[in-house]
Amino acid sequence: PDANRSVQGTSSNNGSPNTDLQEAFAKGALKPGLNVVLEGRPKQPNDVEGLKQCLAEFRQQLAWVERLDVTLGQLTNVVESVSQNTTDKDAVDPENDFQREMSFYRQAQAAVLEALPRLRKLKVPTRRPDDYFAEMAKSDQQMQKIRQKLKSKQEAMEKSEKAKQLRAMRKYGKKVQIEILQRRQKEKKNMLNAVKKYQKGLSDKLDFLDEEQTSSQGNKKGSANQRTKKGPNAKRRYKNQKFGFGGKKKGSKWNTKDSFDDVSGFKSNVAHNKGPGKGGKKALNKRPGKRTRQKMKSRAR
Description:
Blueprint: H1 2-13, H2 17-27, H3 48-58, H4 64-67, H5 97-121, H6 140-200, H7 207-230, H8 234-243, H9 257-261, H10 268-271, H11 290-300
Subcellular location: Nucleus, Nucleolus
Family: Belongs to the EBP2 family.
Organism: Anser brachyrhynchus (Pink-footed goose)
């Protein structure tokens, strides 16, 4: 390595690298074995005997119920249903993900089928009892937080759906309203054009007036039919029965011509305070006058 550093230093300082290498080779600074050409990838050692020896060293001689290990060989009928096009049905292609995963699945399934009878023979329960209580991985408070979060998400989704429906209804309502306004403007424009033509003498027909009257009468009849068909509900009928049918309240106690002419309820004794047990107008003034009260005070002194 020191020779290489010296060669590199001389090549970078003095001249070309070829001359420097030749001078170093002449001096004997370059030795064979520094640069080795590798042909292909090196093979990894497979020391089967050493692996078996290591396995025997750390293996514990325990009963099978303590180990619960099941070792199976290669399954022969794993890929018969999925490799019909291949020539060798017993071999599993390691590059085929589906075949490889199916072989793992079938091997695990065969291991379970072999281990269950051995466990039952040893009287080891393999099913969880119905009254088995297992501690949850998360606490009740954490689960309550999760439930509240899910509930808030659901409420937010419902609110957004309602808002979408309201926006759609508003858009539809605006569309209908615009269509109605456009139809009214069109009808009004047509009627004005017909009136102008009639005024100028271009037309002697008044059909537009008949159409307007028929349309207004039809609208009135339709609204009346709707009112008669719909009618008030039960709550409105009960209030009408209890409080009357409403109507005009202001000026309801004003006199009319019929009430003014009707004097059947007039009583002169009551009106002029001349009934029995009443002493006329003076009987109402029970308090004495000011001078009388002053005289009464002076007499008392």
